[in-house]
Amino acid sequence: MAGGYLVPLGLVAIVLVSAAVAGILRRLVRLSVLLTLPIAISVVLVSALTRPGETVLFVIGPFDITLEGIDFAGQTLVRLFAISTAIGLFTLTTDPRAFVLDLERRGLSPRFAFVAAATIEAVPAMVSRAGVIAAAQRSRGLDTEGSVAARLRGILPLVGPVLLSSLTEVEERSLALEVRAFGRPGRRDLLWCPPDRPAERLVRWLLALALLGLVVARALGAWPPIP
Amino acid sequence: MIEISGLVHVYPEGTRALDGVDLHVAPGEALAIVGQNGSGKSTLVRHLNGLLRPTAGTIRIDGRDAAERKVADLAAIVGLAFQDPDQQIFAGRVRAEVAFAPRNFGLRGAVLEAAVDEALAAVGLVEMADTNPYDLGYSRRKLLAIASVIAARTPVVVLDEPTTGQDLRGTSRVRRIVGDLAAQGRTVIAITHDMRFAAETFGRIVVMRDGRVVLDGAPTVVFAESAWPVLASTYLEPPLAARVGARLGVGTTPTEAALVAALARRD
Amino acid sequence: MLELRGVTYRYAGYARLVLHEVNLALRDGEIVGLIGGNDAGKSTICLVASGLAPASVGGELRGEVVIDGTPTTSLPVHALAERVVLAFQNPATQRSGVTATVFEEVALGPMNLGLPVPETIQRTRQALATLHLEHIADRDPTRLSGGQGQLVAIASLLAMRPRHVLLDEPTAQLDPEGSRLVAAALRDVAATGAALLVAEQKTDLLDGLCDRVVVVEEGRIALEGPTPDVLADERLESWGVEPPARVRISRALEGARLPTLHQLGWMP
To answer: Residue A226 — very low, low, confident or very high, per pLDDT cuts 50/70/90?
Structure first.
């Protein structure tokens, strides 16, 4: 039983230590909790309340809370945290532009690379535009602080211009990009891509091997899933 | 009507957009606020309807402190037409777009229709009342945005860059609109960086730089040769008519008509 | 040379013809101004001349667009990048959004052409030097003034070494300082030998810049000729164009039977 916790907790520990070294520990914890909490609550509740088992700890109404149920919930929770902290660490420490350029260097089409990078940049622009639109409509008397009915009526005047102006902007952007030969097929000679150090290459290979090893171990039954 | 004293505004990221502005606007006045982008013009007018609140200083509108009042309330007194019409147009028909603001302020039925009709007539869009706004060209959409604010019948009308991107017909129409609003006794404030438009349309010009008012007066005061160094410090130039008049020694002639009149007098 | 020969065009989904039998020639090294009311067809002419219409925008084109003897109407836009480019009025939407510095932004065009890195760097440096932008090469492109943003957009296009540079109201959204920056930049661009077509409402700006001016009205060429002649034409206002201040004042003086500006001793 304890074994089911050891590995995920160990992973979480490694990730948290790395985060501390990168100086983003608080941000990572906040991000991971935000990501996992909704799922975690439902999973924990469902498994704790309904999972069948032998050792009943206590009873709440129609539900038997068993030790096995709580154990399952606990193991699932730490696994969820292991996944979310790992994803969080990646998101917070990777420069999206560098990441996308590196993918392109390794063969990803430049157009796909562009779309990935531009999508990340597009969000703050849209948020600020939505702010201006809201200001313009409030200046014409749209009540954003009133009753629910009033706020529902306000959806079209707020969402309409955001969508329309986003469409117009997308068209302007794509024409401007076309003029700069973005549509040209074929590879590009990149001005810069992130440097690849031997130590990083070694770690990547080790991680790939570890993943392979885990898959094999699971297939051979050396490391069983949660009962 | 509008009394602003020592207004300071610092944005959350630290920019000190307004650095102590004093401005008094009497009811029925028509004035232009000019300055480069970043001088604080837009920040200033967004205090007039409560979109922005002062960091320091006071602003009183129609006798009451504006800092306490909701945007929805202030918007019924100060109508603000934004620079980009496409950031407010949402209705499928011109008429519905113009009716939006007056409807928000409680106008209904015959009174609402009258307000919409008047506004459409003022901007010259009566024949397009049933058109989709996006079937109109950019000039007309800008006029539509102005109409939608006029229809609310607010005592104060603020126009943000009404002539930017406009062609000749559009600019002439805007000039006429300002004149009509002033004739109705409404207070009109326009933000612009078109010096000629400011000189020919308004009896008072307020020049801003770095969050402060550096010149405030009639065009003959603001474009006088003595004021040129101040204008130059904001990278603004007086209209050609003023420069010609000064060079020819006939006094301050902010408009072409004034220049011609001054030269005729001289002979 | 870039030519529009008998170009008739309508946008996709619209029955109305926006351009009617337009003939326009942009010769090497020329600076041509394009004026007309807001819906006269200036932007459409720019889109057609740059190849964006109909290739990217759709619509139906009759007639021909010919660049240096080659018809371009069936070519994709990226194939035309070193022959013709188009600058728009909004500096924000011309930013790619994927670069961290002005240098990278300007280098994007040549990089997209698949040029080797040393060539890309050389073209970028040259474009920045032409527009005197070296001092902001390390700046974040999103933190520039409107005028600077437009200059970076123009530099980004120049880096592809185009023979023809089209600009659709490049100063429409700029303040006076920004407009001045762009007007000076256009002179620098012309000095590189590229031919320029500048669509503008600000006739004062075109006054000191263009060799020739073309007037568009309702999709047709209404007038073309040397700059002083066209800008002094009495029909300009009927075509929705404001004459330059100099012309207006001269007319007002003439109307009042006063001496001309020149006679009064006023030299611009």
So the answer is: low
For chain B, say whether C173 makes contact (Cβ under 8 Å): yes
A136 and B105 within 8 Å at the Cβ level: the answer is no
Task: Using an 8 Å CB-CB cutoff, list chain C residues near B166.
Answer: 38, 201
Which one of A139, A157, A160 has the shortest CB-CB distance to B49?
Answer: A139
pLDDT tens-digit profile of A101-113? 888 888 888 777 7
Spatial strand order in the sheet of C2-10: C19-26, C2-10, C60-67, C70-71
Domain segments of chain C: what residues? 2-255
For B257, nearest residue in chain C (alpha carbons):
C252
CB–CB of A89/A29 below 8 Å?
no
pLDDT tens track for B195-234: 999 999 999 999 999 999 999 999 999 999 999 999 999 9
CA–CA distance, B72 with A146 (Å, rounded to integer): 10
CB within 8 Å: A181 and C156: no
Contact C176 B248 (CB under 8 A): no
CA nearest neighbour of A76 among A103, A46, A101: A46
| Residue B191, φ and ψ in degrees, nearest 5 | -90, 130
> Which ranges of A51-141 would DSSP assign to H, the alpha helix?
67-93, 96-105, 110-139
Could you report the per-residue pLDDT of C128-166, keeping only the tens digit for each?
999 999 999 999 998 898 899 999 999 999 999 999 999
Complex ipTM value:
0.89
Kindly state the DSSP code that residue C76 receives in the 8-state scheme: -
Q: Are C230 and C32 in contact, with CB atoms under 8 Å apart?
A: no
| Integer Cα distance of A212 and A220 in angstroms | 12
Inter-chain CB proximity A135 and B46 less than 8 Å: yes
Fold of C2-255: Rossmann fold (3.40.50)
**Nearest CB partner across the interface for B101, out of A129, A135, A141:** A141
β-pairing, C212-217 vs C31-35, is parallel
